[in-house]
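re: ur question from yesterday

yeah so i grabbed the chain u mentioned. its 285 aa long if i counted rite. heres the sequnce exactly as i have it in my notes:
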Amino acid sequence: MTSIARLGAASIGNTPFQLPFALNVAVYVALVAVCVGIVALLVARTRARAGTGGRSGSTGRWTTQDILVVAIMAVLLEVYDNLIGDQFVTPVIEAIPFAHQLAANDLPYMFLLMTGVAIIRKPGAATAMVFLNFLLMQLLYGGSESSPLYWPYGLLQGVFIDLYILARRGRVFSRSGAPAVMDGLVMGALRAFPATAAQSAVITPLLSGVTKTGSAILLYVVLNTIGNGLGAGITAPLAIRVARTVDPSAGYEHDEPGTGPETGPDAGAGVSAGPDRTARGEVAR
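ran it thru and got these structure tokens back, copy pasting raw so excuse formatting
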């Protein structure tokens, strides 16, 4: 690398990163469109699955229990995130070298989030929990980030997790061990990225005028992605155990119609789909 190139790279990394205003607005609008588009896809997919008579488990219809779980887990996420975590855990973590940079204080948060996903196991679960937690934070603490204009950041923390759940066709957390750890690693990383990049490079500079250097943004995004991924992966097996305690059918594999063991020639063999959830009451359509 020439000396001029090195000087240019150093200048970019050490100066505040902020897009031109028009471009910043355009990227922000694109982020809003992405969030709205993914949420619409998740809603349409859930309705289509329910319309074909899909089971209430995995990618099927939402039940009243699922909605209650979302509400409870969102409150628990808020209690930890802005009360217990900020007041007691983060000060301890900050005293450990590199622990805070790797988001070690998010470990209990990721465990709670993975537990909620393991119980519900439907596309939309992560977005619902994370976004409701974000709304609670805005309502309880207010401040400069209480505007609805910050909602894309709250949504970005969940929508890509739900896309992964949708792509896995109901097999997320269907098995313990290494598959569960892998699911956790991916979902944890997707909770951090691209949300942290959008927050640091687009949303906060546009709405609050607060900027970071390019190198600080890159380091923040990379370390948060690694830390959240590891946190979710490590806690995934325990999250499945807790989920099975709450709901004995949690963690069982549910496939799309015509692909699962219950519809093939070996129907009745292998893993049971668990107890019928209709007894717990499905949401009226």
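noticed a couple things. The chain has a mean pLDDT of 84. also The two ends are 62 Å apart (CA to CA).
anyway ttyl
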